[in-house]
Amino acid sequence: MTEQTEGRQTHESGQLLHLVFGGELASLDSHRFRDPAKIDIVGIFPDYASAERAWRAKAQATVDSAQTRYFIVHLHRFLEPAGLLRRLA
């Protein structure tokens, strides 16, 4: 179950896990990776703020490579899909 607290979501688990990953895209207008075997898994972070710091660091380090992109995935949404569906309803 989820509840809103000052604009932030709080889950029963107490964790809002986020995955940061990226790599070289096949083209600038897609999210398809050129070589999925070379995807850079930066890590899993306990909250959005720490995931964003890691994402910013990787994005800044690869700023000269237009085809390279990093993403943040909200893992907690996949771990509790029923909660997501309740919020969308």
Describe the structure.
This protein has a single domain (2-88), classed as Alpha-Beta Plaits. The longest helix is centred in the middle third of the chain and has 14 residues, at 48-61. The two termini are 14 Å apart. It is of the alpha+beta class and 89 residues long. Helices cover 30% and strands 31% of the residues. It has 3 helices and 5 strands. Strands 4-3-5 form a 3-stranded antiparallel β-sheet. It has a two-stranded antiparallel ribbon with strand order 1-2. Residues 1-10 have low confidence and may be disordered. The protein is globular, with a radius of gyration of 15 Å. Strand 1 (2-5) and strand 2 (8-11) form a beta hairpin.
In summary, what is this structure?
With 89 residues, the chain is of the alpha+beta class.
Pairing-aware structural class of the strands and helices?
alpha+beta
Inertia-based shape: globular
Q: Largest sheet, order of strands side by side?
A: 4-3-5
- N/C terminus separation: 14 Å
CATH topology descriptor: Alpha-Beta Plaits
Radius of gyration of CA atoms, rounded to a whole number: 15 Å
The CATH H-level superfamily is: Uncharacterised protein PF13773, DUF4170
**Could you give the count of β-strands?**
5
Give the overall pLDDT as a whole number. 83
- Main beta-sheet strand count, sense and barrel state: 3 strands, antiparallel
Query: Total helix count?
Result: 3
Return residue spans where pLDDT drops below 50 for at least 5 consecutive residues. 1-10
Helix content: 25-40%
Tell me the series of helices and strands, N- to C-terminal.
Answer: EEEEHEHH
CATH architecture: 2-Layer Sandwich
Total separate domains: 1
Identify the CATH class.
Alpha Beta
In what range is the share of β-strand residues?
Answer: 25-35%
